[in-house]
Amino acid sequence: MIEYSNRRIKLNGGIILDNFRFYVPTDIRFGKDRLASELTQVLDTFGKTVLIVYGGGSIKKNGLYDQVIDLLEKNQNNIVELSGVEPNPRIETVRRGVELCRENQVDVILAVGGGSTIDCSKVVAAGFYSEEDPWEFIVGKNGYQGDALPIVTILTLAATGSEMNAGAVISNMATNQKLGVGGPAMMPKVSFLDPTTTFTVPAYQTAAGSADILSHLFESYFNVTEGTDIQDFVSEGIMRAVIKNCPVALETPNDYDARANLMWASSLALNGLTRNGKHGVWSCHAMEHELSAFYDITHGVGLAILTPRWMEYVLNEQTVTKFVEFAKNVWGIEDENQFTAAKKGIQATYDFFKACGIPMTLPEVGIDEEKFAEMAQQAVAHSTIKTDAFVPLTEADVEAIYRSSLTESSFA
Amino acid sequence: MIEYSNRRIKLNGGIILDNFRFYVPTDIRFGKDRLASELTQVLDTFGKTVLIVYGGGSIKKNGLYDQVIDLLEKNQNNIVELSGVEPNPRIETVRRGVELCRENQVDVILAVGGGSTIDCSKVVAAGFYSEEDPWEFIVGKNGYQGDALPIVTILTLAATGSEMNAGAVISNMATNQKLGVGGPAMMPKVSFLDPTTTFTVPAYQTAAGSADILSHLFESYFNVTEGTDIQDFVSEGIMRAVIKNCPVALETPNDYDARANLMWASSLALNGLTRNGKHGVWSCHAMEHELSAFYDITHGVGLAILTPRWMEYVLNEQTVTKFVEFAKNVWGIEDENQFTAAKKGIQATYDFFKACGIPMTLPEVGIDEEKFAEMAQQAVAHSTIKTDAFVPLTEADVEAIYRSSLTESSFA
């Protein structure tokens, strides 16, 4: 019979950090000039027929596509291609990928791109083995527990973290749904993270990707579970690294170390490290997914717009301590008055996104109030933010946060 | 042809963070009350004959041994035991373990203990498949590249991080050698991290373990490679978590969250996360290994004694910036004068260890100057600190650092 200290039980009613499992067997190959000597060796462990998945062709402009094709041809691989994966990947594209895998008896999927391409690849990999249509297990509540084709990734955008986790987000524009799904077999086996592949990422996407990384960190950092110092202090460290390096990458797109730090931040922000031991659901992602589902905007931009408004909205007597820590440990901001310190931290977050060139109001990305009520309803319907968020959010709360994003804001 | 920004090349002659591989497939089961439902299930995936490895019997006092035996008996496992693993595990014990595995056709090794027990288990696991005597591949320079028996661990001490990496340190008292060895197959398959198993760890061991964790972080943090913000900022976060939670665990040994943070810190401090992308060798471990090899002292205590003296010794115009960052980001100490700030950070480190009850001079742990010269020679001979350390160290440097540890110190 284990006895816990009275101190803790007094402090928080006996609530301690949650049990968790941390099992992230993705083999990360980080650095430059690795593909020539390692890519085909890795692929050969899974088989000769490769489905290459990619997006809109940026990899054709920067030479990565040619390099990969050349390596695979010299290695006598059978190459199948799924191109044109959308920024918010669609279920139709996933279905097309599953067909290609079945028709060609694909052995391994090689995702060359950012989170959208990798997410699409994951659901194709699962769909190959699934008897259901992929949309069925996406809308299901149990994730995907079956087999999947092995996935190797070559990451070209520091943003979603999909290269080192088992989750994916797929959109269905017919039903205005953008939903997440995950399963152990969907985790990439090997991910190549070469910072030089992101040298050509435009400023807007670099900033949006950094906002996505920060949002992943924020969503777990602002959480009700106590006692998770490791997770929180590690998260603050990664936040600081992104805040330091994103402006460097914007000013000097081929700064290797800046790109390297953003890239590694992307993977660590969403592989469980800053999240495990904590319960409750994310807030901003649930609200943003509706913006993307209805208006197909850039995910990271939607998150950047909503986040500071959400922070201000949930700031209260119960949450202020966490915001004070955030202001101090991430932004170096202190103030005798707790709420002043907290608001300055929120302002710093807003100012950072703005300085990175992100449009910080909804009208700037083509969204007006017309569908606020409908999107707010969907945000609550597609998640459990009404009960399990850091601060629970009703439809009215979500609508208020959308509304506060109509014009420029000032917090401090 | 990739072009790097001139800025970086100007700054550091084109030196960027190193390529690295991060592949840590240990399945971490973190939290309380998991063994009853998960342990035998995990073991059964490898086989029925289990070698249980443990140390001096603390697990018999706290009930963990009985619990494990009970679970395995009910599961009809064949149980083989290797007990009495030393705090600095010895090659003779390893050889005894290999014999037991071969005689009993062991399928899986269950290490129940701290780093010593797990390290011993790793080399037994490798020794089972090796045609050489284990000491041969330990003294070899190429690590261990062969197969190993699968290892499952139940961690009972937050310290070495052995539960989530592929390394081990084994002592040979006959030759006064304490040497590290590692290999991919030696990484534990599954590690159970239950903070409650550390509730009964005595204060002295809790403090020494925390010093060991901090030392692992320091050894990689103070490093010549530039551009490793993620690694460094994450490391600072883990340092802060240890510095916050160790005193809580000392005052309230059954504080779950404090023990949980120390335990998770142990694993993350030495699984590559804070180290990858950096080159060069560790300094304090090389110097401390000789203290342990000659005097068999507690590893973490030796590290705590040497570390602040080493910090002061290597503080100079080139390294001061890093020490200023350390003082600010870890201890919250700032000063207009760089060297003053740096020294205050070193003083804080010393004071922290002292406040944790660690004896902070060598004579307090039974070491006088008699063997300083010999140990300094060995420290340089067994490592590459003379060429590859943060600040290269000769035999004379090492001896000076030993000498400065003879009496109480004041740095700031």
TrEMBL record, chains A, B:
GO function terms (MF aspect): alcohol dehydrogenase (NADP+) activity; butanol dehydrogenase (NAD+) activity; metal ion binding; methylglyoxal reductase (NADPH) (acetol producing) activity
A Pfam family of the record is: Fe-ADH
GO cellular-component terms in the record?
A: cytosol
- Give all residue intervals belonging to the Fe-containing alcohol dehydrogenase-like C-terminal domain: 206-405
Query: Is this entry keyworded Cytoplasm?
Result: no
Q: Name the CDD domains on file.
A: BDH
Keywords annotated in UniProt: Oxidoreductase
Alcohol dehydrogenase iron-type/glycerol dehydrogenase GldA domain residues are: 25-195
The record's section on InterPro entries has:
ADH_Fe/GldA, ADH_Fe_C, ADH_Fe_CS, BDH-like
The record, for SUPFAM superfamilies, names: Dehydroquinate synthase-like
Keyword Oxidoreductase: yes or no?
yes
Put simply, this protein is called: Uncharacterized protein
Q: Which organism is it from?
A: Spodoptera exigua (Beet armyworm)
